[in-house]
């Protein structure tokens, strides 16, 4: 059998994590669709700055390694930016 290097093993681990992230992100976008439906029905804007700040605070508090916290927070900022664009796209559909 071909020897699996540490690099291959670490990349396999990343592939498995990516698979999980894709599933979770799809679930998150499905939840965002529900939030968007509610907000459209109640004529609420896409952006909720307070909610975004609350999420960033919670995510930062839940990160156990402080060295990783700012990078994880940056990812969540981008996730929410993409969610807003997704909501925009949904609103343009109908
Ligand atoms: O909770 C909402 O109101 C959403 O639209 C979802 C979400 C998010 O991705 O978590 C996206 C946009 C808002 O600015 C706040 C949060």
Distinct ligands: prephenic acid
Relative strand content: under 5%
Mean pLDDT: 96
Number of helices: 3
Q: Considering the protein shown, what is the CATH homologous superfamily?
A: Chorismate mutase
What is the helical fraction, as a range of percent? over 70%
Q: Architecture, according to CATH?
A: Up-down Bundle
Query: Regarding CATH, which class?
Result: Mainly Alpha
- Poorly predicted spans: none
Organism: Limosilactobacillus frumenti DSM 13145
InterPro entries: Chorismate_II_sf, Chorismate_mutase-related, Chorismate_mutase_GmP, CM_dom_sf, CM_II_prokaryot
Pfam families: CM_2
Domain Chorismate mutase: 1-91
Detailed description of the structure:
- It is flat and about 60 Å long.
- Helix content is 80%, strand content 0%.
- By secondary structure, the protein is mainly α.
- The chain has three helices and no strands.
- Helix 2 (49-62) packs antiparallel against helix 3.
- The protein has one domain: Chorismate mutase (Chorismate Mutase Domain, subunit A), CATH 1.20.59.
- The structure holds prephenic acid.
- The site of prephenic acid has 12 residues, from helix 1, helix 2 and helix 3.
TL;DR of this structure?
The protein contains three helices and no strands. By secondary structure, it is mainly alpha-helical.
List keywords for this structure.
Chorismate Mutase Domain, subunit A; single chain; Chorismate mutase domain-containing protein; mainly alpha; binds prephenic acid; 3 helices; 94 residues; Chorismate_mutase-related
């Amino acid at each position: 059998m071909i020897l699996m290097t540490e690099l291959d093993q670490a990349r396999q681990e990343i592939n498995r994590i990516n698979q999980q992230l894709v599933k979770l992100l799809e679930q998150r976008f499905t939840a965002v669709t529900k939030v968007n439906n509610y907000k459209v029905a109640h004529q609420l804007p896409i952006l909720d700055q307070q909610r975004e700040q609350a999420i960033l605070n919670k995510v930062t508090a839940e990160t156990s390694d402080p060295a990783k916290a700012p990078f994880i927070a940056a990812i969540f900022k981008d996730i929410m930016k993409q969610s807003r664009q997704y909501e925009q796209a949904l609103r343009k559909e109908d």
